[in-house]
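Continuing from the previous page...

OK, I double-checked the sequence for ThuA domain-containing protein against my notes and this is the correct one:
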Amino acid sequence: MTTDTRRALVVRGGWDGHHPVTISDSFVPYLKDRGFTVETSEDLAVYDDAERLAATDLIVQCWTMGSITREQSANLAAAVRAGTGLAGWHGGIVDCFHDHGYHLLTGGTFVMHPPGYLDHGYEIVPQRADHPIVAGLDDFTLHSEQYWVLTDPQIDVLATTTFPPDEFHDRPAVMPAVWARTWGQGRVFVSTIGHKPDDFDVPEVRTLTERGLLWASR
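Thanks. Re-ran it with the corrected sequence; updated structure tokens here:
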């Protein structure tokens, strides 16, 4: 526990099927225990306030679908470029906002997932196994949605998931699932895992998400 006070802003809303309040609330005590003051916003208008974003050390975004204005997107990107951290999981960070600038910032966007929930695995990238977000974690399996994403080649991929061949693809596809990146002076953490609250009952999922929040923060 640290005595330094940092400011976290949780921006949550959009499609209720991703449980934005329930899941984001589950991380608030963790952040508070590590010295953050935590504010929440359920209105994207918070991204209109460039000064507030610049004064925030960590923005946790949990907002599926929805629309962001060009000015809001530019304010968010500018804050991160100046040192504010950005972090999130699943649809709350990659299935939102049809805005090119936003997707350049996060380093990826959701495309599809196979119907329903299925058992599938996640593999820690061996060359990145010493990264603080995944250090000491083993590969793990999950019964949930598996995200197919399009990503920036310059992200730092920490974990992957593999899609088997299907009617459209004649060979397995290894897909980025957890990644980190820098954007100017700021850091961005993205996990595609976390469709439902009990996904975070898997110890590896909870741990890498908590670590990702801290890693991204200023």
